[in-house]
Amino acid sequence: MIKRLYNWTMTLAEAPYALWALGFVAFLESSVFPIPPDILMIPMIIAAPRRAFLIAGVALVASVLGGIFGYFIGWGLFESVGRPVLEFYGKTDNFDAFAQTYNDWGAWAVLIAGVTPFPYKVITILSGSTGLSFPVFMVASVIARGLRFFIIAALLWKFGAPIRTFIEKRLGLLFTLCVVTLIGGFYLVKFL
């Protein structure tokens, strides 16, 4: 199934309606879809490098809108589905403690999931179900998704097709290093 979805996504990259398809995939990936928009974005930018930042912008806007949808899935379904299940098992107190801890650190969770290969949709839904501050969620989502998509766009715009293989093979590592650097920078600023 994943292979078929991957092939379908690659075919979309060549279509005349590719920007709309990218927006659709980026929206769905932030809430329910398993294929990241990067695999559609990369061939689109290789094919039209002058449109790299437009393509990244479409991915950013659609992804953040999809994140909002995921947030509201978590928010809406938690009360109707999640809480009754927790009550049945007597785990409401455990979830409330988890939600408090998550909300204390939620901005970091959104930032990390937004730029790394960790499924962003999990964090969008979790953020809604725990009641993470919506403005905090939005700011972290815009920063994280913007970094992810615009760094890819800038690399492809600058270096073209040769960087594609490098990005595809090491995307997770690159963004993990970015997150570690970002956290390290905040740590240094705060404690030094």
Instruction: Give the % helix.
Output: over 70%
Which word captures the global form?
A: globular
Structural class: mainly alpha
Strand content: under 5%
Q: Residue ranges: pLDDT <50 for 5 or more in a row?
A: none
Per DSSP E runs of 2 or more residues, the count of β-strands stands at 0
H/E series = HHHHHHHH
Give the terminus-to-terminus CA distance: 50 Å
**Mean pLDDT across all amino acids:** 81
The helix count comes to 8
Structural Rg: 18 Å
Characterize the main sheet. none
Describe the overall structure.
This protein has about 190 residues and is mainly α. It contains 8 helices and no strands. The mean pLDDT is about 80.
Provide a concise account of the structure shown.
The chain is built from 8 helices and no strands. The chain is mostly helical and 192 residues long.
Please give a handful of descriptors for the protein shown.
192 residues; mainly alpha; globular
Detail the topology: elements first, then pairings.
Layout: H1 2-13, H2 18-29, H3 38-47, H4 52-88, H5 92-115, H6 120-130, H7 134-159, H8 161-191
